[in-house]
Amino acid sequence: MPEIRVPPEHAGERLDVVLGEHAGSRSAAQRLIDEGRVTVDGVRRPKRHKVAAGEIVAWEPPPEPEPVDPADVPYDVVYEDEHLLVVDKPAGVVVHPARGHETGTLAQALAGRTAGGEPGRAGIVHRLDRDTSGLLVVARSEDAHRRLKAMLERREITREYLALVLGRPPARTGTIDAPIGRDRRVRTRMSTDTDEPREARTHFAIERAYPEATLLRVTLETGRTHQIRVHLQAIGHPVAGDPEYGGAGAFGLERQFLHAARLAFEHPFTGATVDVTSPLPDDLRRVLETL
Q1: Cα(103)–Cα(116) distance, rounded to whole angstroms?
Q2: DSSP, res 194
Q3: Which DSSP letter does residue 70 get?
Q4: pLDDT of residue 102
Q5: Which of 34, 88, 129, 242 is labelled catalytic?
Q6: What's residue 193's pLDDT?
Q7: Which class is domain 3-59?
Q8: pLDDT at 109 (0 to 100)
Q9: What is the pLDDT, as a whole number, of residue 162?
Q10: Does 160-259 match 68-154 at the fold level?
């Protein structure tokens, strides 16, 4: 179990910042902390904990992923070149290994075709929740991963989703601008009621209105965990079928009605436009037919 002793020059810094220098990145350090793999002098501390000189920070690295037969993980490649892939992921597939989902992931199925980023997550630029279907871009080299990550941070990658929500928003278009972080009371959930707020903005437009629900086209400006689901719940219109954020069981859905329907960006090497769409999966399409 690797460990470090906090040097005097880092006294007073956040735990995730100090650990990030040794765990690959600050985001990797935050995941280790959130998964309960990090202690400070033998005690688990939150990522905002301010370390003191001489404290021992120890961490348990995530387990090495087991080999996966790509044939066991369903997905479609809808765009491919020497630099990147755009993958269409069905609901039920986990993007990369995490506690409780160490194997059978998309990242493992793509191993050997992708590269860049953290071990076990090679090539993954952004993620989708397990039960959200649709498109994501994956890098095939360290350079491509670095460029795509930078584009994502500069908000140069368009990510559009289709979401069926309960009720009807009061305006045809809108922007939800509300910071998101871990919920104060339920640490496995994300929320606008948080002690760890991070900037988050979501844009929406009504695609089609139904008597009891509304199909929205949603565009992400930022990319926080569960952002669309949290933001739509916050305005009183949770995603239909969402078991965590207020839409459980609606219209007979067994998962949230959320689909990453479009990805568009300038190719990071050629400058050509990459604009890919994904049709609604059958389970979501059938719900609209019944409505």
Answers
A1: 19
A2: B
A3: G
A4: 57
A5: 129
A6: 92
A7: alpha beta
A8: 82
A9: 98
A10: yes
Q: One-letter amino acid identity for 254?
A: E
Specify the pTM.
Answer: 0.78
Measure the CA–CA gap between 273 and 189, rounded to whole angstroms.
Answer: 36
- pLDDT at position 43 is 93
Report the amino acid identity of residue 177. Answer: D
Q: What is the pLDDT of residue 120?
A: 65
| Rg over CA atoms, the chain | 20
Tell me the two tokens of residue 180: 């998101």
Q: Are 115 and 107 in contact (CB under 8 A)?
A: no
**Per-residue model confidence (pLDDT) at position 63:** 65
Supply the DSSP symbol for 139.
E
Burial class (CB in 10 A: 0-12, 13-18, 19+), 260: buried
- Does the annotation count 81 as an active-site position? no
Positions of the chain with pLDDT lower than 70, given as ranges: 63-71, 97-103, 119-120
Query: Which CATH code, of 3.30.2350.10, 1.10.4160.10, 3.40.309.10, 3.40.50.970, is assigned to 160-259?
Result: 3.30.2350.10
- Sign of the CA dihedral 263, 105, 59, 47? positive
In the chain, domain spans: 3-59, 68-154, 160-259
Q: Give how far Cα 233 sits from Cα of 32, 60, 225, 286, Å.
A: 28, 35, 14, 23
As assigned by CATH, the class of the 68-154 domain is alpha beta
By the 8 A CB rule, do 236 and 176 touch?
no
How many Cα atoms within 13 Å fall on the side-chain side of residue 177? 2
What counts of helices (H) and strands (E) characterise the chain? Answer: 6, 14
Total number of residues shown for the chain: 291
- Residues 3 and 56: beta-carbon distance below 8 Å: yes
Strand runs labelled E in 133-226: 133-139, 158-166, 173-177, 181-182, 190-191, 201-209, 213-220
